[in-house]
Every structure is written in C-alpha cells, then in structure tokens.
Amino acid sequence: FRDDGRYSAADYAKITSERQLKERPNFWNPYDRAYKLELRKYFVLRLLNGAMCGLVHMHNHDRLHQSLGPSSVVLNTVAEKNGYYLLPQLRDLAFSVDIGYSSMGVGALSDGLWRRASAAGASTPLEKRAFGVADDMQRLLENTFRLDIYAAREYCLEDDKLSEAVNFLDLGDGAGWELLQAMLNPDYRKRPIAEAVLNHRFITGALL
C-alpha cells in the first residue's frame, strides 16, 4: 500500500482515451488493431487483479478502504505493451476503517458506515462487518454504473467508441457484465467478497 508509481488507474484511462482519439487505424497491418486490443484486455485484467489482491489483503486484515476509486490504484506503468510488468497498488487510505470486532463502531470515520449498515438491516457485529466489506466492493463501481448494469450496456452499445469495451465485457457469454452486476447488487448479502471477485473467471483472464 505504498505510494509507488507515477500514475493511477484514472491517469491510464485518460491517457488511453486521448491516445485513441489521435490514433488512426494501421491499414498496412490488418492485425495491428486486434493485437493492440489483446494488449489492452490483458493490461486491464492485470490492473483489476492487482487492485482486488490489495483489497483482499486489507479485508483479511480487518481493514476497509472506504474511498476506493480509479485514482486510488497506483500503477508503475501505463504502457499496455508492458502489461506483464504492471504492479497495481492501493493508496488513499486516509479514510480506511478498522472492522476488527473489538474496534467496530469506534471512531468518527466509521460512523456513517455503521449507520448505513443498520439502515440495510445489519444488526449483529458479523452482519455489520459483512456490510462493510460489501460496501467497499460497491464503492469502486457505483458512481459509474448506478446499479443498472444491463441498462449501461445498452447505453454503451449506442456509442461506437465504447463498442470494444462492450465486447470485452461480453467475453464468456457476458462474464464481465455478470461480475459487475453481482458487485453492484443492492442487497449487500448477495455481493461477492473481494476474494471471490479475484477468482472469478473474468478476472483470472481465463476467457482471453
């Protein structure tokens, strides 16, 4: 969880988007586009895998991140050709919360979390801890997809610039969308924990 690397996942998204706007297809090499897309898919999966590994480690040590987002994932490279050497790490731990049973409910930073847990029906320490873990998972995605994954897919299909992203998430009969939908389930009890996400067929790269 050190602040190593010059870039964040947010920087990668911005740089990649800007590069796409400037690039022209290589008409002399019909395989150029397909090759670049494979590099991108591998890079993105490595990025997600690394972020989830960090989250698994935190949760296994009774810590929630609580401010997880693209800017919280530090990258040592944004060059997709160097995806094999990519080492994502988590930062922005100022709002991290201790969810050890002896610390639960203690501290101003966690007050809002436990209020949301109670509102969601979590009453016992075990249920509140489960809510906290599920809440950490949802924070990474909720501001982007607003809980309706398949509506987001239909929206993306209307934009040619997003077609490759849709195709990527469509791999394995929609494995990417399936995972996102599970992570954004309104019922915290049905959301996968970070370790389950890490082992999902989409994240492991088994579909590439």
Automatic annotation (TrEMBL):
SUPFAM superfamilies: Protein kinase-like (PK-like). The lineage of its organism: Eukaryota, Viridiplantae, Streptophyta, Embryophyta, Tracheophyta. It comes from Aegilops tauschii subsp. strangulata. GO terms for cellular component: chloroplast. This is Protein kinase domain-containing protein.
